[in-house]
Here is the input.
Amino acid sequence: MNAAYHHSHPKLSHNQSEILACLRKAKEPMSAYAILDRVRTVGISHPPTVYRALNELMQKGMVHRLQSKSAFVACGHGACDGKFAFAICRQCDKVVEIPLSDEDQATLLQLAPEEIAPEQVTLEIAGLCEDCRPSAAS
Ligand SMILES: [Zn+2]
Ligand SMILES: [Zn+2]
Here is the structure.
């Protein structure tokens, strides 16, 4: 999963660009099956096709997977190098991508105990977004 990042304008296949467009339009995390449901109209109808395109988009850093929801989101910045965390509203599923600096990531990886050699870290912060927080006014 570490190769293939850093393509600023990667050429996308038909399937990749349809699936990326679908995720960008959705503005919320989508399961592979929800994606499949929407891209049927453009002629993509097999789950393996969707999974393959999702994997390729993840390798390009243009799509990320939310581990806690088994769902996919379009990168909040077009594409990134895989150093990011997510903040997720537990009520409406709003997702905000948080870029991590090299130091942030190194610090997190250092939390691994000696018996596990750390390779990657997944950080998801759950909470309530502005819209879902009960306002003091009402
Ligand atoms: Zn990203
Ligand atoms: Zn919310």
